[in-house]
Write a structure and sequence with these properties.
114 residues; alpha+beta; Arc Repressor Mutant, subunit A; 3-stranded antiparallel β-sheet; 3 strands; 57% helix
Length: 114
């Protein structure tokens, strides 16, 4: 694997922190199938409406989702499909860890030097 230099570690950390919340990930997952209004999102994401609004604001601020107003409703959609690639890589890493975990559990533990 090629080494990668992070030229902007602070913005990277901020973006990952925005993705590091189960409710925000649920929102992203719902928006993968297309645009949804706040009511539709609130029916599936089990948080209060004010909390949902805060999560959506965070995702919007990071450029992960976009919103548009139609009459009295606000609709959200994914703004950057690259986010889905990031999440796919995370899932690959998790799957790999789950496959390797049983193998590592069978190995004897090595005592650490004090």
């Amino acid at each position: 694997m090629q080494p990668h230099t992070f030229y902007q570690p602070a913005p990277c950390a901020k973006m990952l922190k925005s993705l590091g919340n189960v409710y925000r990930l649920q929102i992203i997952q719902l928006l993968m199938s297309g645009e949804k209004n706040v009511t539709e999102l609130n029916q599936s994401v089990k948080v209060s409406q004010p909390a949902l609004s805060q999560h959506l604001a965070r995702l919007r601020k990071e450029g992960i989702v976009m919103s548009r107003r139609h009459q009295r409703q606000i609709f959200y959609r994914l703004n950057n499909p690259q986010i889905l690639r990031i999440l796919a890589v995370v899932e690959d890493v998790i799957s790999q860890r789950q496959v390797e975990a049983p193998v590592n559990q069978n190995q004897p533990q090595v005592a650490k030097a004090a």
